[in-house]
Structure formats: C-alpha cells, structure tokens
Amino acid sequence: IFGVPEGNLGEQGLRAWLPWIHPDDRERMRRAIEQALAHHEPLDEEFRIVRPDSQIRWLHARTLHVETGSDGRHVTVGAAADITGRRRAQDALLASARRYRTLFDAAHVGITITDLGGADIVYAGPGWTGHLAFVEPDAPEIPQDLEAFKQWGPGIVTLSPFTLAQNSLHG
Hints:
This protein is of the alpha+beta class.
C-alpha cells in the first residue's frame, strides 16, 4: 500500500507511518497516533499517504492494543486498507450534488425532485416561486367538478390574506 519495501514500516510501529502521511493529514494523524499509544486506545482513522512514486492514496487504518507482547511490552496490532476508490466515488458524488444544487438554485424555471412514489417533493428550486400560487380550494372561481377543473386552464381567483402569506414564504 505504501509503495515501500516490506519491513520499512512494521519495525518502528505507527510512528513510522508519519513520513508517508499527506502533509494536510500529518498533524491530525500524529495527534491521533500519540493519543492511541499514550492511552493504549484503538485507532480508527482515514487519511492520505503520498507514496514514493508521488501517488496519493486514501487509507483506513484500525488498530487495537494487546496488553503485552512476549517481552512484556504493550503491542499494537492492526490493519490498513486502501480505500482510494471509495473516497474518489464519494468525492465525485459530492461534486455532482454541488453541481446539481447550483443548477437548481440558478434555474428560472421550476425544477423538482420527488420521491420514487411521486407523492412528496424532496427539493424544489427557487424557480418554482414565480409559477405557483396558493388558492383556497373552495374559491368560487375554481370549478368543483373534477372534470371541469381538468379543463379549466388559467384563470384569476380570489386570494385571501392567509394565501398571500403562504405564497410569500416561497419567494
């Protein structure tokens, strides 16, 4: 994982990882390693390393402490897994979500995201505010018969103060 010859990391323990840890993660990891070693606590961290070939990889390291080794010293055992693919997928998903949120927020037309059943609006961009009006369902101008309502089309209706307040919440 580290791209170094076998044995270069294990002999010195967790502190041997520090030179390979990405500079932006190094201080946080130094503190986490020192805390784990000083208090014989587990370590469970995600961090980046910079391999000798300049490749940046994400690792998830987990350790735990065994009371004593064969010579009576505390021993740390653990594993590090390369999670670079998972982190790249997470980063791509977050970037995509930011792009789509920007599109929704900038759109001058109504865009909505609904749940799979279509019953609930999960997100509606601000462009909807110019296209919606809340009216009283029993306003005299609205046809009460469903078939007549379907054919009704645009119209002017009576708005109450409650409806105006409700509409102002949306834009």
